[in-house]
Predict the structure.
Amino acid sequence: MTMIVSFEESKKLLFRHKIPVVKEGIIKSSPAGLDFAKKNGYPVVLKISSPNILHKTDIGGVILDIQDEQSLSSAWDKISKLAKNKKTDILIQKQEQGIEVIIGAKRDKVFGPVVMFGLGGIFTEVLKDVSFRLAPITKKEAKEMIKEIKGFKILKGYRGQEPANLPKLEEILLCLSNLITKEKNIKEVDLNPVIADSKKALIVDAKITNEDGPRW
């Protein structure tokens, strides 16, 4: 039976394979959110956390650009009501700025494990600007995947914009290739978005599906 992996199990699996995740945590109260923001800084994001709700933004389940204590308290009041109705947890994240990238992997019935790379956001949905390789991939193949998409100029820093850290993106591709190759029960991994700036690349959201529940 195919199932979507929970937030905690997804995070555990990504950490195990050295895939970097944005600073985040499940919170149960507004004061807990304020403590997180004091430790990690603003802006932060609040979102409902449920593997069964795929399009959280469509139902008001994501609040971005929370810049101070007052805004965080107000956002908590809004999202906690939705979380109660949907019977979900609430996740707080440090909001990162940079270029949105999508990195994925799946176990194809014909070809076996495959990894994918592309620009995130509207570029993925509208332009379908992605590249694929059979896993496991080499460092050379990771570099090629990144360079061959049409939007590579954006990653290099188009018209003075801050470039993405390409070596960090390569590392994530290699780690994900290792994950989908070794974790035989994993069916699909969708890291979207991955936010990359000149210093780092971090996973902001992950959807993982597997067969018969977690085994790690």
About this structure: The helical segments are 7-16, 30-40, 69-86, 122-127, 139-147, 152-157, 166-182. The chain has two domains: 23-94, 98-211. The mean pLDDT is 92.
